[in-house]
Amino acid sequence: MNPNCARCGKIVYPTEKVNCLDKFWHKACFHCETCKMTLNMKNYKGYEKKPYCNAHYPKQSFTMVADTPENLRLKQQSELQSQVRYKEEFEKNKGKGFSVVADTPELQRIKKTQDQISNIKYHEEFEKSRMGPSGGEGMEPERRDSQDSSSYRRPLEQQQPHHIPTSAPVYQQPQQQPVAQSYGGYKEPAAPVSIQRSAPGGGGKRYRAVYDYSAADEDEVSFQDGDTIVNVQQIDDGWMYGTVERTGDTGMLPANYVEAI
Questions:
Q1: How high does pLDDT run on average in the chain?
Q2: What range(s) does the LIM zinc-binding domain occupy?
Q3: What is the predicted pLDDT for the residue at 199?
Q4: CB neighbours of 144 closer than 8 A, spacing ≥ 6?
Q5: Rounded-to-integer distance, Cα 12 and Cα 5, Å
Q6: Which of 214, 211, 258 is nearest to 233 (CA)?
Q7: Cβ pair 2, 11 in contact under 8 A
Q8: N or C: which end of the chain has fewer CB within 10 A?
């Protein structure tokens, strides 16, 4: 059913209907109340559900109120009520010992940091109480982890001491005596000979390193992945004795870090 126009009261058909200010209007009836200028949805202004143009839109004016005794009494009463409420709120929060603080991002960050610190301290105290006061069990977790890793890396070193076999060849380069040359009656002093460590020959068993290894003691040798170890002798199931061909160093090496060639 088609509605009636809010101004002329006639039926408004969909082709000329304007729905605005909770009413239905003809396009021609939708005009300013003062100057009768036709309006649309973009330039109208509503006041008390009536359309106005921008020039004739009613402006609100404020009226002055005289300071009569009655108005002064109401003003004083409202001030007293506000003071009473303020004192009530103050008395309620007086015994609580805190003041209301705005929840700013900086305070949230500080609160989060304090929570993390308290959690860390709680876990530290818990670990200390769980480990007990004994020397072995009261050890810090970092020291325990380092000792566990070292004992895992060298399980056989704690059981059997290192013994360098007497049959292991020791390579020494013979030192050449400097020869002095003489020219007539003058004798030229001999130049010093620099002694260099030479890599041993390729005799005996040969192995290839499959991992990098850094020497933990003075009687061990360091090597890299792919290095060749020559003159290898088996000491036990976990350790060998040989010479790194690249560096010429001789000493102990773990058997599970190399493979036979």
A1: 75
A2: 5-56
A3: 39
A4: none
A5: 6
A6: 258
A7: yes
A8: N
pLDDT score of 217 = 86
SS (H, E, C) 27-82: CCCCECCCCCCECCCCCCEEECCEEECCCCCCCCCCCCCCCCHHHHHHHHHHHHHH
pLDDT at 126: 77
Amino acid at 129: S
In a 3-state reduction of DSSP, which class is residue 202? Answer: coil
Cα–Cα separations (whole angstroms), residue 51 to 9, 15, 35, 139, 162:
16, 20, 11, 86, 106
For residue 125, give the H/E element and its range. helix 105-131
Lowest-confidence region among 56-70, 186-200, 234-248: 186-200
Structural domains present in the chain:
1-57 (2.10.110.10), 205-258 (2.30.30.40)
Sequence-distant (6+) residues with CB within 8 A of 131 are 137, 138, 139
Name residue, tokens 């990098």: 212
Query: In this predicted model, what pLDDT tens digit does every residue of 2-51 receive, in sequence order?
Result: 899 999 999 999 888 999 888 999 999 999 999 999 999 889 999 889 99
Q: For residues 70 and 77, is the Cβ–Cβ distance under 8 A?
A: no
